Amino acid sequence: MAIVAVQLGQCGNQIGQEVFNAICSDVRGTHGLCSKKENESYHDACKERFFSEEESEVPVARAVLVDMEPKVISQTLSVAARSGYWKYDDRSHFCQKQGSGNNWANGYSVHGPRHKEVIMNLVQKEAEKCDRLGGFFTIMSMAGGTGSGLGAFVTQCLRDAFPTSFILNHVIWPYGTGEVIVQNYNSVLTLSHLYQSSDALLVHENDVIHKICAQLMNIKQISFRDVNQVIAHQLGSVFQPTYTAESALHYGRNPLGDLMETLVPHPEFKMLGLRNIPQMPENFLAYSTFSWPGLIKHLRQMLIANAKMEEGIDWQVRPPRLGSSTPSSHSTNKPLHFNTSIANLVILRGKDTHSVDLGSFRDPSLYTSWLSPQDAFKAWKTPRAFNKYEKSATLVSNSQFLLKPLDNVVGKAWNMFASKAYIHQYTKFGIEEEDFLDSFTALEQVISSYTSL
Fold this sequence. Notes:
- The protein is of the alpha/beta class.
- The protein folds into three domains: 2-272, 3-Layer(aba) Sandwich (Rossmann fold), CATH 3.40.50; 282-319 and 338-400, CATH 3.30.1330.20; 404-452, no CATH class.
- Helices cover 43% and strands 17% of the residues.
- It contains 14 helices and twelve strands.
- The protein has helices at residues 9-28, 36-50, 70-83, 104-128, 146-161, 183-197, 206-215, 224-239, 255-263, 292-304, 373-376, 403-418, 423-427, 433-451, and strands spanning 2-8, 51-53, 59-61, 63-67, 93-95, 133-141, 166-173, 200-205, 271-277, 341-350, 377-382, 391-399.
- The strands form two sheets. The chain has a ten-stranded mixed beta sheet with strand order 5-4-1-6-7-8-9-12-10-11, sandwiched between helices.
- Strand 7, helix 6 (183-197) and strand 8 form a beta-alpha-beta unit.
- The longest helix has 25 residues, at 104-128.
């Protein structure tokens, strides 16, 4: 089934372009370990998901590009076309000459309604090109105005126009040190509205990806493109074709539906996190070897200790003993915070995936009590390596991983709101104080739900 990407704002368009680049690069790679039939099957499944083909025979991304300023969209279209391997449809984008000024209300209440018809017509045309539409993958930031405000508005429109299609929002969590002064307001308003409209939110934190670039990728001067390429690699490791437990003989047909069925058993819990190992500079790969037991051991500990990368994992954190409310540990000197899961998906790519023991992820103590491990854990596999990694493992998790950042954002936004800071910038575009209060209430309920796991 096809996935239509909706790239919103500067951040969404730049990441979207890197995602299609990563997917295309992976498909074009040679994988001698797989049979010709396996490679062709993989290629065909990928193309059906992400690309349509025009007369030029250059694959065309299934995407709609939206921004209130033309510069980034122009660059995005140009870079894709210059690759020679894929491109965007020249008619499948929308831009204006005036941005949203980092104001969520401007994007949501002004640009959204004003340009709704044009944007949704583009989405409708892209959807009609799909033989079978699986759903929408929106890519956006929370910090600015267009990506967050217009993105929240467009997501609502997608839900209204395509009530039976899956909607997965990919959301970039802003740097903790601050990108714009009102980013916490924008984040609270974005998350609360997306929680009503989308099926799940897949979150990447800028601070975490920045650390991966510095410590794992060994990049000295980190650019936005470096950050976006790491994000794109991780997303590609999820969305490229795999065999699921239900479709062991052919590649899964509905990646968004399979993802939701596996990871979102209850509408109160929609926050998904992503970890991918190994990650390293390309020129290190030829000198590195990995074993599946080692990768799985690290990935499991990253889950329980809520570590975002394989360096610096706290190995002292242990799952709680069944029947006990406190984590067991060899260390009694400091509190250890165990990350309880609702559901987990492990995706294995590369040689010998059929022989990998994933029993440690079926441990009941990892999960909330209201789901059995057989319902809470799933594994997808393919013998085809991903983007030059002989073996790689990805974990998509619905867990308490975002509790602390979410609590921080809500707390900072509330402190500003209590002193009426910058509220006038929102009310002049029609967002009232009651709208803020509704958003705070919604997110405090999310925090409470995840805390009680």
